Amino acid sequence: MCGIVAYIGPKDATPFLLEGLARLEYRGYDSAGVAVTGRGGGIKLRKVKGRVADLAADVPARFKGTTGIGHTRWATHGVPSDANAHPHLDNAERVAVVHNGIIENADELRAKLTADGAVFRSETDTEVLSHLIAAHLTEGVELEDAVRAALGRVVGTYGIAVLDAEQPDRIVVARNGSPIVLGIGEKEMFAASDVSALVRYTRQVVHLEDGELATVRADGFRTFTADARTTHRQPSTVDWEIDSFDTAGYEHYLLKEIHEQPGSVERTLSGRLDERFATAHLGGLNLDARELREIRRVKILGCGSAYYAGEMGAQLIEELSRIPAHSEPASEFRYRNPVIEADTLYVAVSQSGETYDTLAAVQEIKRKGGRVLGVVNTVGSAIARECDGGIYLHAGPEVSVASTKAFTSTVVAFALLALHFGRIHDLSPADGRRIVSALQALPDQIREVLDQSEAIAELAAEYAESAGMMFIGRVRAYPVAREGAQKLKEISYVHAEAYPASELKHGPLALISPELPTVAVVPDDELLDKNLTTLGEIKARSGRVIAVAHRRPEEKLADHCIVVPKSEPELDPLLLNIPLQLLAYHAAVALGRDVDKPRNLAKSVTVE
Ligand code: F6R
């Protein structure tokens, strides 16, 4: 949520700042701003409510400086407005600050600073940082020392970048709960909240740890702790392709990412299937077979779609290994003083690896001595680093706010984990081989679903104007229904509810009418007859039905059917989910929505 960029070097900072912000815009997009300085130049500031394109149009040609910071915002404190956009200045206009996160004691600090004469010009919590840092910048004080002193008075989470017009040879950045990455260039340095802003300029990066600060100069950087102890950080190389950050000819990132799934699934599987022993190799688990045998329960934690992917994962683990497994929203788990058991394996799921609620859940489990694995897409992210081991998805960067390819790869990663667990327990070699072959077949089967995109677009256009939609599925198909409803409401703003099909007659059947179509997920499995009975009940109440099924049901039971290739029953949910991504996408397009940047949302939720 919110994006930060910073540049220091021989060139003009503004083009990088604007380009970097455009790349980060998916993280937050209600306002944007830049501040630059140079030798003897004071601070130049431009900020606007709206998109980065609006900011770029507002920046004059003479807006130049060799040191600069920029921000794209997702409002938490104060409405989106020019005044609330970052960067924020102190009253002398010497210090400029951009900030991601939340300052919890902002009200208290604001009152103290106001009493000392500071005049606030915004409603943001961030502005307290500019005044506070300025208050510590007395004669001869280095910017990094002023920032350290100011942060010592702050309670909350932050990733920040700070400019001082009187010390234009440096930028100071700090991280506590909100990511900051340094990018190392040739006699120039970059910083950002996300590597996607940096890959066009450098592949050498340093991820700051929580509690760490850095002084960044054109010729290098120094990292240190809040009590001024120097830390030593080795750069790592980012292996994401620059192309991954373009739409590659697709109309939207979302459509591109949906279509990338055959390849991203192949990457998740790559080198991990063992045909000889009909199992999976997961080197990053850091748990040997003996330790895995001692696990009695699996608890999966994630937020939003990551949580629903975890529900599919829990089902896979229970079915293949017969170890009880359950998925819970990390955002709830962390607040309920959870019982942490030594023989439970905790698994945190996150595309970004930065979701604050998930990170906080991981930290709580670890603090209580639990063991946590991460199923994470972003290498080197906070959650990945915090976990004891895990599985990287290798799905490639996901830019569109709604998760698609990372969701699918997460389910594939759980299938690998479940297979591995299963084969350590009682899953037979024959069943192991059945799953291995089914996993290998997935990329081609996903292509078959994607080939139906046009037909699904027609269906979506027909139903997009509905007041709402019901999504139903039983057991394995219930998480499919939940994720389908989530995707539709996120990007099309059409109200969608998901229910277990078995629950329909216990209440929601009252809603069924021609105005509320139902998307029914109907796998060809042992529950098929029960599902067909439910469809009959909906049709008897004049409900319209779109079935997502392996076989077209009788005409009187479904108005439309999207036929999906059959996998093994345990893996069917993964394929049944793909048409629902396309349905949501095409409905959003039909309604003229901002598909990649839906209102009120942001890609990674790095605040509570
Ligand atoms: C849904 C979506 C969100 C995220 C959730 C967790 O399309 O994108 O629900 O899944 O905010 O994000 P990560 O996986 O980055 O932890």
What does it look like?
With 608 residues, this protein is an alpha/beta fold. The protein has an 8-stranded antiparallel sheet with strand order 3-2-4-1-10-9-11-15, with helices on one face. Strands 5-6-7-8-12-13-14 form a 7-stranded antiparallel sheet, covered by helices on one side. Helix 13 packs antiparallel against helix 14 (429-450) and helix 14 packs parallel to helix 18. The longest helix has 22 residues, at 429-450. It starts with a strand and ends in an 18-residue tail after the last helix. The structure holds fructose -6-phosphate (F6R). The site of fructose -6-phosphate (F6R) has 14 residues, from helix 9.
How would you describe this structure in keywords?
18 helices; 27 strands; alpha/beta; 8-stranded antiparallel beta sheet; binds fructose -6-phosphate; single chain; 7-stranded antiparallel beta sheet; globular; 608 residues
Average residue pLDDT = 94
Structural class designation: alpha/beta
Number of β-strand runs: 27
- Strand content is 15-25%
Overall shape: globular
Instruction: For the largest sheet, list the strands in their spatial order.
Output: 3-2-4-1-10-9-11-15
Termini, distance in Å? 11 Å
Concise synopsis of the structure shown:
This protein is an alpha/beta fold.
What's the layout of helices and strands?
Layout: E1 3-8, H1 13-24, E2 31-37, E3 44-49, H2 52-58, E4 67-73, E5 88-89, E6 95-100, H3 106-115, H4 127-136, H5 143-151, E7 158-164, E8 171-176, E9 181-184, E10 189-192, E11 204-207, E12 212-217, E13 220-225, E14 230-231, E15 236-237, H6 253-259, H7 261-269, E16 273-274, E17 279-280, H8 289-293, E18 297-302, H9 305-321, E19 325-329, H10 330-333, E20 344-350, H11 356-367, E21 371-376, H12 382-386, E22 389-392, H13 405-424, H14 429-450, H15 453-463, E23 468-473, H16 478-492, E24 495-500, E25 518-522, H17 528-540, E26 545-549, E27 560-563, H18 572-590
Parallel strand pairs: 18-19, 18-20, 20-21, 21-22, 23-24, 23-25, 25-26, 26-27
Antiparallel strand pairs: 1-4, 1-10, 2-3, 2-4, 5-6, 6-7, 7-8, 8-12, 9-10, 9-11, 11-15, 12-13, 13-14, 16-17
The structure holds fructose -6-phosphate.
